[in-house]
Design the sequence.
């Protein structure tokens, strides 16, 4: 996922960018409100989330949030030291999707980023009104966590389902290995790479569609939507 980090402190930005990169994010750093707004042209510019610090040198962070929301529907998480309820409500009313108060735990921040990005799944994956993702012969029922191929139910483990559902959210988009591990296993890449490979191999075998999940060498995996 591409993430726009809006932070005027270069030291803070460098440290946070390194953490986010380890978890599979492609981070672009904007040092001012104007730089952030330019980065989001045209229409979000492919960013999955904007992490917006409110203490900016050129514009009030709340004002920047309002301008972002007028230009794009990209999720915005405000980051600030202001912890009072009135400030949070003001930010949410301006269109922010979430609000993180400094100092924050990195794990919590990552969870909030994943949470707001998952809220846009319906737009990206064309989920039906019944909560079913339809990818050719493959139907993924999100409410019941059931998968079928040509009408026949395929028994998947919990992690196999989570992995398939994640890739199916954005068919054709490459998910980095680190991002998959972070979202499905809720841990870091170290020591978990082999587990991911095993689960991908198991999915290909169970679905009897080896070409459904494509390996992108040196990067990760993507789901190749089958023909309807």
Sequence:
């Amino acid at each position: 996922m591409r993430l726009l980090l809006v932070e005027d402190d270069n030291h803070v930005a460098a440290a946070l960018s390194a953490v986010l990169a380890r978890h599979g994010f492609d981070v672009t750093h904007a040092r001012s409100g104007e730089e952030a707004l330019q980065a989001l042209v045209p229409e979000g510019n492919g960013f999955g989330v904007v992490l917006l610090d409110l203490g900016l040198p050129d514009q009030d962070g709340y004002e920047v949030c309002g301008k972002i929301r007028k230009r794009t529907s990209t999720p915005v998480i405000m980051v600030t030291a202001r912890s009072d309820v009135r400030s949070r409500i003001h930010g949410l009313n301006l269109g922010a999707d979430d609000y993180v108060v400094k100092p924050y735990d990195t794990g919590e921040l990552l969870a909030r980023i994943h949470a707001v990005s998952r809220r846009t799944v319906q737009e990206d994956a064309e989920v039906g009104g019944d909560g079913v993702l339809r990818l050719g012969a493959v139907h993924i029922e999100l409410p019941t966590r059931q998968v079928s191929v040509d009408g026949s139910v395929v028994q998947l483990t919990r992690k196999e389902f989570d992995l398939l559902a994640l890739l199916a959210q954005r068919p054709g988009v490459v998910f980095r290995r680190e991002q998959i591990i972070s979202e499905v296993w809720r841990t870091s890449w170290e020591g978990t790479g082999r587990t991911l490979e095993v689960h991908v191999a198991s999915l290909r075998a169970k679905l009897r569609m080896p070409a459904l999940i494509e390996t992108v060498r040196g990067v990760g995996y993507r789901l190749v939507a089958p023909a309807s």
